[in-house]
Amino acid sequence: MPRLICHVDMDAFFVSVEELFDPSLKGKAVVVGGKADQRGVVSAASYEARRYGVHSALPLRTAAKLCPHAIFVEGHPERYRECSQKVFTVLNRFTPQVEMASIDEAYLDLTGTDRLHGPPLRTAHALHEAMKRETNLNCSLGLASSRLVAKVCSDQAKPNGVLWVLPGQEAPFLAPLDIRKIPGVGKVTEASLNSMGIHHVGDLARLDENFLRERFGRWGLALAGKAKGQDAGSWFDGEIGALEDPKSISHEHTFSEDVADRTELETVLVKLSEMVAKRLREHKLYSRTIQLKLRYRDFTTITRAHSLDHGTQFDGDLIAAVLDLLQRNWDGATPVRLLGVHAGSLKRNEGQMSLLDEPAAERLRSAFRAIDKIRDRFGVSSISLARSMQTNLREKTHENPYDLPGKAPQEKEESIPPARKPKN
DNA sequence: TCTGGGGTCCTAGGACCC
DNA sequence: TCTGGGGTCCTAGGACCC
Q1: Catalytic one among A18, A99, A105, A266?
Q2: Left, alpha or beta for A24 (phi > 0: left; psi -120 to 50: alpha)?
Q3: pLDDT at A340 over 60
Q4: A270 and A306 inside one domain
Q5: If DSSP codes are grouped into helix, strand and coil, which group holds residue A70?
Q6: pTM of the predicted model as reported, rounded to 2 decimal places
Q7: Does A48 fall in a domain?
Q8: Does the annotation count A105 as an active-site position?
Q9: Are strands A98-102 and A105-109 parallel, antiparallel or unpaired?
Q10: Which residues pair with A366 in a beta bridge?
Q11: Is 60 exceeded by the pLDDT of residue A321?
Q12: What CATH code is carried by the domain that includes residue A68?
């Protein structure tokens, strides 16, 4: 029996959520992502704004030129997460086999649920209506025998539609579509395929697998499978709904104007490190590879990594690694556009090489639990390790205060600013 | 046009070990 | 001595997705 996969994709999700909070936006050209003159790109555009050529990833300033009368609104990640949770709740009632693929889309495995919900189209329509009723949001649904076809399907069904591709009809459904409709085919692959005279999925499906493998390596094999609607390649395969740990956690910041001041760069790196470390602790994960990212004015971007001999989830370790990487890789003069801190090689435990004995490690963890609670209430910047405020001192004394992951808990001082109002 | 932020996966070279 | 082959780790960069 073929699988029955449903892909649910929320329509103009960020814009629709903003409309829930401000109904006056409805029916207007709305751009979510920031102010019209900011450095940044469009996160989402309403269908009205799209008519002027505005789309996500477009620079905000360009969007403003294309659609001068558009309303530009700041994004609200908390609102989107909250709505995403409601979406999940609705879906989860139809089957426990739900997997949120991102904040606004999900896969459901509906194989064998016809006795419970009826035939596929009836199930899909029930889901569609339940979503509208309970979240006030529109979505589009794709039904098919593979994730890949279901995803392409929901895209074809947009906006606010339902589309089912019957088993056996995958190839004829895909054949006339533009190659770009295949998830994983972006600008570069498209250009490359176009140069070979391949424009539609059907052209690709007719090609010899070996030819594609010679031309594109393993990616070529995956492509051949995709052209036939198979969940070929690694990540599309597998159970729906299996929860997995994240593989990396990162935060980055683009300055509104390029910065060449060391202290300012270090201050931002400390903050980014603290945010990453906090999320490592929330996930109960330890990272062994800390990476610094630098982007310059001309957009050239470098990443420099350092692997530790033990995993860590503590601010000081990340800060030490990242400041050291900056020291070694930044010339001290070139203006910086973006800074990033990335934690990779994530594990559920520290590994064998921990520098701390277990009681010390537990004292540290408990100190950080307290710190994280304060940060949850008052914001990340409300509390820092005393040392992390002394980036200047490090320069002057030529010693690195972060060499050890919190030599002892008493080294950390809580510093709560006098009158800082809690958010909300 | 002047390019965010959070991710995943893949490739490729060099080190290092057996 | 002029020369292997495989496996794994580390690092850097890039395509792609939402």
Answers
A1: A105
A2: alpha
A3: yes
A4: yes
A5: coil
A6: 0.86
A7: yes
A8: yes
A9: antiparallel
A10: none
A11: yes
A12: 3.40.1170.60
